[in-house]
Design a protein that fits this description.
By secondary structure, the chain is of the alpha+beta class. It is built from 5 helices and 10 strands; from the N terminus they run E-E-E-H-E-H-H-E-E-E-E-E-E-H-H. Strand 7 and strand 8 form a beta hairpin. Helix 2 crosses helix 4.
Length: 188
Amino acid sequence: MGNRGALHDDRREIVRAFRGQRWITCVLEFRGRRRAIMAPNRYTELFFLDEAVAFAAGHRPCAECRRERFNAFKRAWIGRAGTASSRPVYVSEIDAELHRARLDMQRRKRTHEAPLHSLPNGCFVEIEQAAYLVWNEALFLWTPEGYARKEHRPGRLAVTVLTPQPILHCFRAGYEPETHCSLQILRW
């Protein structure tokens, strides 16, 4: 489940794409807490197929309910340049850099072009107006219900990358996103 702040009004209609820079992914169940969907004056619940999709949207793991995943992500964030820093990294700094990487000046999703062979596992690309998950030597077609089919990953194709660049660097530094069970079925 994702959170970008309160996106809905009192009529439960979506009125904005985000509120603030903290875009996080949470677990569906945590310490017995119960929530009403789109409750007044509360954050709007967003639902993703899996963590890889949430990353493509620009979200990061929650530091409370997904503490272990957040710590792994933060280690990858620190190690993405290849050297560990002695200076502490604050979550507000991560959120600010992610925010700059996921939206352009008109507040639209920021994408970039890259050679497909250069991309790490877990990132999303757009090919012929369809979204694909990159994993090893394959591409997996995304649908809201799950990954629909496996295709061979072409060698010299330039693609539009949907996952923000700082997250790609975390994947290269060793963070592996969790994926939906439909991917495991197609991988074999």
